[in-house]
Design brief:
four-stranded parallel β-sheet; Rossmann fold; 119 residues; ATPase_V1-cplx_f_g_su; proton-transporting ATPase activity, rotational mechanism; alpha/beta; V-type proton ATPase subunit F
Length: 119
């Protein structure tokens, strides 16, 4: 990966993945594994979790974007990720608005600072 940036991976519903793919994030690694997973009604939680863990293990991925409603399905796996890279960002979907109270990364960041730090 010398001289190259890292990829953005997406785990999301069809609309989210389509939007990011049209924006140019779609890639296959040398093992022909994509950097995205389209989650449909019949996608198992096991498949979502395995894909998330495989994205964490890949050294070519720097950011994982995941729809928040999907993140809720694998919350234990997301909460267990403590490294800064790849960064895991929860994003809204067309059908499910963002809820900051459910975002584990935001809760961790809030715990790092007190109100006095911002005065």
């Amino acid at each position: 990966m010398a001289g190259r940036g890292k990829l953005i991976a997406v785990i999301g519903d069809e609309d989210t993945c389509t939007g990011f793919l049209l924006g140019g994030i779609g890639e296959l690694n040398k093992n022909r594994k994509p950097n995205f997973l389209v989650v449909e009604k019949d996608t198992s939680i096991t498949e979502i979790e395995e894909t998330f863990k495989s994205f964490l293990a890949r050294n070519d991925i720097g950011i994982i974007l995941i729809n928040q409603f999907i993140a809720e399905m694998i919350r234990h796996a997301i909460d267990g990720h403590m490294q800064s890279i790849p960064a895991v960002l929860e994003i809204p979907s067309k059908e499910h608005p963002y809820d900051a109270s459910k975002d584990s990364i935001l809760r961790r960041a809030k715990g790092m600072y007190s109100a006095d730090d911002f005065r």
